[in-house]
Amino acid sequence: MAAASPPARSARAKAAPRAGAAKARPPQPYDTPLFAAAAPQAGDIVAAADKAQALLGTVRAELGQAVFGQDEVVEQALTALLAGGHALLVGVPGLAKTKLVESLGAVLGLDTRRIQFTPDLMPADILGSEVMEEDAKGKRSFRYIQGPVFARLLMADEINRASPRTQAALLQAMQEYHVTIAGKRYDLPRPFHVLATQNPLEQEGTYPLPEAQLDRFLMQIDIAYPDRETERRIMLATSGALPLLPQAALNPARLMEMQALVRYMPLPENVAEAILTLVRGCRPPAATEPEAAAAAENAPAGRPEAGKFIAWGPGPRATQALSLCVRARALLQGRLAPAPADVRALARPVLQHRMALNFTARAANIRLTELIDRMARELA
Prior knowledge:
Number of domains: 2
Order of helices and strands: HHHEHEHEEEHEEEHEHHHHEHHEHH
Structural class: alpha/beta
Helix content: 40-55%
Distance between the termini: 102 Å
CATH superfamily of the largest domain: P-loop containing nucleotide triphosphate hydrolases
Radius of gyration: 26 Å
CATH topology of the largest domain: Rossmann fold
């Protein structure tokens, strides 16, 4: 008698995935490109802006679940990233600078790395180095091992504690978006952004960044103490058993499209004039401009735009930075074009690390931030 054949497995059993197999990721809103064509037209830009604003609303909501009471700081950090630049975070310890960078990396879908800068940190510790390897046949060759700079979002913690040589290695990579090792070029991943931190209180054992290197940062973002209610929320939310883990709301491809969209956005004439008036007013009068020099000399001490209070001022890079940042801020706030109010709001973070006051200003008890704020308020 023939043995009975085993019962056939059902189609459902055959289709069942193996244990431990990775599940397919469900489609996300940020998977769809912003632009329908490689060369967008006016209508494509408006449609892309609508999509970007919807995604940015989700980004801000996710960041708000991890970083409390720092809405202006979050907005300025997002503005710097949308404008395609780097930012310098200045604040005393414990104000969530590291948390902000980690949350930005998680929400924007950027691989994030952190470097703790110390006086003995070497350029190779950031850029990477070559090591000698020997194969099975005894042939020796050099192999390049990438450093932590090969990330899309890099946190340079306490950047002013490293030596000028190490600072210059990072700042060169920030400007050129590549590193050169043994004469060979290695491109950094795009987008590439650096968020560096500084402690404004402790200056012992530090190496202040030179003016030319400070100018490479698009913005300087000052982080202040939170108010009482915000600090209560921080205390209760961060001391519990459940960690605060924001979810991804963007990916690198969409971020780069948004950065391109910012450059497609129009810059109204009145905004361009406000930028030029503000930046040029923050410079000392040149000898080649006798009318401006005479006006500054005769200006009353209460008028902060007087050039006699300024030792050195911002260059054309500040004009470029403001023109990009005001458009990025407009996109964040759901507008298709910037307004003079955006220039006033971003004047301090864009200009304060690009200029310095002279002894006359210090003798008159004039602070740099107050001078910039007053000049920004006087814009038409």
